[in-house]
Fold this protein.
Amino acid sequence: MLLHSLVQHADSREDAIPDYYQRRLVMWQIDLSSTGDSEPLIIDLRPSKGEKPRQVTAPYGVRSGKNPPPFLLADSALYVLAHPGLVKQSDGEKLPSTSPKDLTKAQQRHATYRSMVTSWCDEHPDLPQARTLTKWLDSHTPDRWPEAMDQGHLVAISVDGEWIHDLPQAQRWWAEKVTSAKSGKPGKSQEGICLVCGETGSLLNTLPVPIKGLPNSGMNTQLICLNQPAHYRAGIKQLGATPVCVRCGTKATTALNTLLADPEHRTYAGDSAIVWWTRDPTTETDMWTLDNPDPTEVAQLVNGLRHPRKGRDALAALDEDAFHAVTLRVNTNRVIVADWITIPVPELKRRLGTWFADQQPWDGWNNTYVYWPVWRLALAAARWDKRKSKYIDTTIPVHLQADLAKAALHGTPPPAHVLPVLMQRIRADHHIDRPRIALLRLALTRTTTRHKELSVPQLNATSTEPGYVCGRIMAMLEAIQRKAMPKVNTTITDKYLTTAVVSPRAVLTRLRIGAHPHLRTVARKSEPAAKAMEIRMREAFDLLDDLPAHLNAEQQALFILGYEHQRAHSARAAAEAIKAREAGKDLADDQVADALPEATEDASTTHSALR
């Protein structure tokens, strides 16, 4: 199914790459003059700092063994110019190697390259470019190279500024040569029915094009590779038991490489790459919103949940267009297909809308919903470095970003370990921000059905769920402390969160007693504000018959959610109090309690405290 979809995509693209060609980074250009009245130009195409590298579509294929074959016309400096490679000297300067072994290897590689190019020129005597190239090969002896050139740099040849390898004659010749090599020895090529297209034809021994662009990939990373006895079926090596014809194998691997090279169809998630496409190449997939969500477009996806396409329309969409996505990893030069999905495009939009609806936290200060990319949610599960005020990205759980993307596309819960890991991080570093709340909401919403009324973006003031109420009380006690001590450096949350989230009775009882002096301090400035805060706290305590002595893992998550909901609710009230004060209105008792301290603090400073 994956190969079939890739072949289908290759046939539908107008900008399809020729068979056995691939977009490659060209560093040097040898430009020949068709008139022969000037010396060849060697042009340095390496990008300057900050510039994008120069990529061209050039011949490519699998290259392995003791004598790896050359590529037509565009190859490394080792092959094109017999470059022996740079060697670092004692003074730090790099000079071409003078080792007999390196020189011999370079001459051998160059000889095979000259032989191939000469063969192509001999078969196309009427082409002006072939005649020009033949003259240059006959007169050129590679013994000097630009100082910055190294043997691995890709070198391509042009005539009057036009790449020779782009000629139709070069494309056809290269395709025939690779096809012949990959179909087996003459007279021994296997014939059979291709499992992709269902037609009878010459079958491949190995896939002709390696997969490029995957994290940790090598030179010859293969999509299908059977080269160990444990991999064989009925003792048949390589693709003998996986019949794929030359056409389909070439198109599938070329299409996959094209998608991997296109940022609009590929994203990286740690050591994985996620590639997506649609049956109709012109369809907008909105997949990229997982990496960089635009609030307006995400709001449209969320609102679209209220008007899902059903019945005949959805079936028609399934027939007319489909969305495909594959998650790939590499293990010792073999591609691992970690996930594969095919769904109708309308269903994709519904699942993306649900994804953002399930994780959106509420920004009370600005009265808006916030949406986070997948990579940011994965980072929220990492360890927080208090000294540097940043997450340590090397502590992100393995494959979490790819697993979250999989959950978004499949509409399934995130991995079961997300919630325990996240709670362990919060208890350890006491850092609670909106990405962590979004990840917590996502895990709760998709893994439990018992607390749907709590796993919402905003405060549920009537809930009697013990963990949730205890989290709200913690936020209220912290607000009282901040009201009494606007410039406090270490809050009660910083000190007691680890214990309170596990054993709230002992901690909250003690903190309630400790809040009385803070309330007296607030009363000196505004007695109505102190009374309002005390009444709120009492009403929250009254929601429970008794504070729980211990909370289980799920209740601990609800504790954090209740804590953040109460803080966001207070931030909204504080913002409204500021607007009322600026408008010259008298504040009600509740507004006085929520208003920010009338000090030199600006809104942004206090907002960061409310987060």
